[in-house]
Amino acid sequence: MNFGFFQLARCGSMEKVIRSFKQLESEDFRILATVERGMGSYEYVPIDYITKSFPKNVSETISRLDRLHKLKLLVRWIGAYIGYRLTLSGYDILALGSLVSSNIIYAFGHRVGIGKESDVYDALTPSNERVIVKLHRLGRTSFKQVRRLRSYVHNKGGSWFFASRGSAEKEYSALQILFEAGINVPRPRGQNRHAIVMDFVEGDELYLIRKLPNPLKILNEILDNVKLSYRVGIVHSDLSEHNVIVKPDFHVVLIDWPQWLPVKHVEALRYLRRDVSNILRFFERRFGVRKDLEETMKKIL
User: How far is CA 25 from CA 32, 67, 72, 104, 252, in A?
Assistant: First the structure.
């Protein structure tokens, strides 16, 4: 695969991932994917499980496992048996490899954002369009906090790899629904494992902005998008000034949807109310624009 950095990030963990990526062959990706499948049943996937998938090349497979371990894409455990499991870098490589082979991305750039549950990177498509790759990292928050709203954590044995994948799948499905409905969200381009590719949105997060030419107009646009989202069955449930982007033309884009709830969820109205309250409080505090919460909720509902 022809893949690399278009802007090299110095001494970053993803730089090491991409350097490892460029050393791998298709057989290496097959071995990593086999270990990934085995992790659904084993904490450390037995070497016999792995070699059975490559019966004609057992010695070569063992050699490749050793090399992948040295590249820190696998962790090796030696106890009652010899076993392997993916590292975070190994999981990143599987996701990026699939996105590259699907012609969704071509080159990888530097990190442009970091959050409690994700890392965000610049990337380019094969047609040289600038996009964003968002890698979900659910292990940064406590297990109790995540599973409070996210049913897929219960169903995946508590593995943070599979939980992060579920988070990405959930956010991607929301973006597809919202974008098709004309709501101001980044256009989704593709998803694999814990990675989402979406359009790059130029602008600043709302909390960084001190002055706006017409703050009431921008507040109304945010609330209109909240209302439209509710009409298509989705509540953001984590909306604040930190996940609203104001573009240079002063239109808004709502981002970060992994915690969304369907409107039929028992907690949906409570979280919708919290979303709206967060935005109203911010505009009153920062720009002196005031709207009544109860009246705004009536209009949305």
Answer: 11, 12, 16, 20, 43
Is 238 annotated as catalytic?
yes
Q: Which of 92, 119, 122, 238 is catalytic?
A: 238
Instruction: Count the Cβ atoms, other than its own, within 10 Å of residue 281.
Output: 14
Name the one residue in this structure whose structure tokens are 């107009």: 217
Domains identified in the chain and CATH numbers? 4-89 (1.10.10.10), 105-199 (3.30.200.20), 204-300 (1.10.510.10)
Element spanning 32, H or E = helix 26-38
pLDDT per residue, tens digit, the chain (301 aa), is: 556 554 434 446 788 888 899 899 999 999 999 999 999 999 999 999 999 999 888 999 999 999 999 999 999 999 999 999 999 999 999 999 999 999 999 998 888 988 778 999 999 999 999 999 999 998 755 444 444 445 544 444 337 888 999 999 999 999 999 999 999 999 999 999 999 999 999 999 999 999 999 999 999 999 999 999 999 999 999 999 999 999 999 999 999 999 999 999 999 999 999 999 999 999 999 999 999 999 999 999 9
Q: Could you tell me the pTM of the whole model?
A: 0.90
